[in-house]
Amino acid sequence: MSTVVLDNVTKVYPGGHLAVDRMNLRADEGELLVLLGPSGCGKSTLLRMIAGLEDITAGELWLGGRHANHLAPRDRDVAMVFQNGALYPHRTVRGNISFPLEIAKTDPAVVRERVVELSRALHIDETLDRRPATLSGGQRQRVAMGRAIVRRPSLFLMDEPLSNLDAGMRTELRMEISSLVRALGVTTVYVTHDQIEALTLADRIAIMNRGVLQDIGTPGQVYNDPATAFTAAFLSSQQLNLLAADVRTPQNQFILLDFGPHQIRMNWTDPRAYAISQHTGSQIVVGIRPDALVPVPEYTEGPTFFGRVRTLEYHGHEWLAYLEAGIPAVVVPEPPDPRQARTGGGQEAGRSRSVVRRLLSGGNAAEDGEPAGPVPAGSGTHRRADLIVRLGARPVWRAGEHGRVAVDVSRLMLFTQDGHRIDPPRR
Length: 427
Ligand SMILES: Nc1ncnc2c1ncn2[C@@H]1O[C@H](COP(=O)(O)OP(=O)(O)O)[C@@H](O)[C@H]1O
Ligand SMILES: [Mg+2]
Prior knowledge:
There is one protein chain. By secondary structure, this protein is α+β, with helices and mostly antiparallel strands. The protein has two domains: 4-224, P-loop containing nucleotide triphosphate hydrolases (Rossmann fold), CATH 3.40.50.300; 229-334 and 379-415, no CATH class. The chain has eleven helices and 22 strands. It has helices at residues 43-51, 93-103, 108-121, 137-149, 167-184, 195-201, 219-224, 229-234, 273-277, 338-343, 346-361; strands at 4-13, 17-27, 32-36, 58-63, 66-67, 78-81, 155-159, 187-192, 204-209, 212-217, 241-248, 255-258, 263-266, 283-288, 293-295, 304-314, 319-324, 328-329, 383-384, 387-392, 402-407, 413-415. Strands 6-7-8-3-9-10 form a six-stranded mixed beta sheet, sandwiched between helices. Strands 13-12-11-14-22 form a five-stranded antiparallel beta sheet. Helix 2 (93-103) packs across helix 3 (108-121) and helix 2 (93-103) runs parallel beside helix 4 (137-149). The longest helix has 18 residues, at 167-184. Adenosine-5'-diphosphate binds at residues 13, 17, 19, 37, 39-45.
């Protein structure tokens, strides 16, 4: 069994492309750690560095407590499954799964026993004598997993193993991977760009963007208390409302989040009040999930937003409403492309570097001796966007009507202009 530790691991591809930027990460014994992020953010690169298929440019990799930067792939005791698990076409399912054991000259009786045992667990015991060409995509992926896991590696690496399958098969195999990996107790690093896959499978999720770690925690932690606006938006199944608000503290009596035509009061008893009050006189970014806004009658007391219902959208299991509330919305704040930080010059590059550094250190601008300047170029562009509201199974409004929603202040996600959580970390 094995642990994985990455200490400031960086990958620069030949030609200067920075794919992974000072990644710090730990997968514990028997843990299922999911690496989540958009396409091109460096997930496969990271996984391939752990497997030994890609050189590490800088930083340290430890596998099971052993320094592994220069270990040959075959000495890492790692098995990997890829998106399109390539199989040996001329071998049967049995022959594919048993192949790694045959290479290792394992006792044929043990081989037989393990292949049968594993094929049952993977629900492919009926296909043992068939060739890959006669199998469905889901079955082929099960065989690939069987072949990877049959020699009982210390570490299991999976790179988007379900992304070529149709939705039904994905859900089915997802549950099976979860129970199989947990039954075996093998430490697993699982890469995906699908937030539902990450939330349902993971013990912990590490979210990446542009080669930089954004957040890490249990699914509940990263979903409910995201460290960055990027994480909040990426983990939302419906589009996240990201709004600009000015912070005011009138006569120090309470905190006012000023959304232009709407104001939301936050009492001093709110655990985040002090941290927010530090932003008095400046603008912050407020994230609100569509299900944290609840339609209420017109004369409702307490924090509310209101507007004209522009349109309703039917999603089968729920209705969403788009409410014209006249609130300035913001584009997801995210760090400038770090690749430009290394290759470009001038002020923009300097700023990029410091934003990346702050993201990594979790520090703030003031600590870095840098003024909390304007929102980085390309983000924070203010426009008026509709408020997206989850109505549930029945459309309680009609288009063109006036609608009012109650705001659950405890569920507001509060970020600085460059997208870092304002409240003090609770974990
Ligand atoms: N061999 C390579 N040479 C140069 N750039 C690469 C190479 N492999 C990947 N990249 C680049 O590195 C970035 C990260 O790629 P990758 O790790 O495959 O991302 P992901 O798996 O998250 O989609 C991408 O911008 C990709 O184009
Ligand atoms: Mg990839």
